Amino acid sequence: MGSSREGNDVAQGNLKASQLERVQDLVARRTAGLSLEAPFYTDQDFFDADMKAIFGRHWLFVAVDAEIPEPGDTTTIDFGPYSVIVVRDDDEELRAFHNVCRHRGARLLDAGCAEIGNLVCPYHKWTYNTDGELMHAPAQAPDFDRSSFGLRTVHVRSVAGLIFICLAEEPPADFDEVAAVIEPYFAPHALKGAKLAHRTDLVENGNWKLVLENNRECYHCDGHPELIGAYFPVFAIDDDEDVPPNLRTTYERYRKTLAEMYEVYDRLGLPYEHIREVDTRTTGFRVQRDALDGAGESYTLDGTAACTRTLGDLPEKRLGYLSMHMQPNSWFHVVGDHAITFSALPISPDKTLVRTTWLVHPDAEEGADYDLGAMTKVWTATNDQDAALVARGQQGVTNPAYVPGPYAPSEHQVEAFVNWYITRLEEELKR
User: Helix, strand or coil for residue 316?
Assistant: First the structure.
């Protein structure tokens, strides 16, 4: 794991007194069960607070091991004012660095994946190895000490093939506990050795919290016709009394299918307990296995497998799906034949990058073992539809007529996310 003991709190910046007072007032008057007031979604003050309290202090999902499998492979992640390079070093270990040359601050790498021998600044050719050490700085004074000008490090770690970074000097201590819980869920699917089949970047015209709120509920799932061919639109309905009349038949079919899946999970030794700690700990998360509709094998239009090879060489195709939400910026779906990861990276108060990756068995070949179009169709369409809904939400919260509205019973995961978020801001304001 990298270290960040060079004053990351200075890098994160501090809110001005006027900003701080405004944030404090709005946080203090937040009403549970209602959506947030408009400034949380629209104002630069709150965006700055979010970058400091949330994205500057918590573990963020940013990539998968399959994106940087070999020594010298890098991926560069931009969010808010930050840019971070994740690289696999010569010993095949992960390293992460701020994407800032130690000479005069030029950006070293553009966003995206690359293969490098060393990190060379395009401005004045300062050169760093994959450990972040400064190897070469042209035309310096005789007493220049290269050892004092290595790249500033960022904490990084992989959990079951999922890569997380943390900018804070002292990352949240509970992440080890969370990793120990979720790793057994993901390990049977062997994501660390999987193959990257596809990656997309979609800029949504909405605040990052609207993106996450939209993800944490299925109240709107009738707006996803491709998705509900395989996905039961009953997410977060935990009580029979909360089932809307129009979903009663679907819910009963879901409960029957879920019982069948539990038998499969027990036979294969796959953990499936629904663990929900989304707003009761610093690193909020939820994880579970659940049933799929249709053939129950994959996220395709009819639920049939899109790839002939199962992840982890599991002996069953019909596995439903493994689902995880991780605060503050990610969600995951793993089915028998592929995995999909999602990360939300704030760009500005009203723009968010949603990055989606599809993973397959390392030996699966496109065109022979899987049809990429069929594999990506459902979530590509769903992402586009969600982007349109988030944009509508952003348009609405910027309207002077907007006032916070109530969450429906099936939106309790949204309330949990907002509660987690408000709690994190409250903690930051006490520092």
Answer: coil
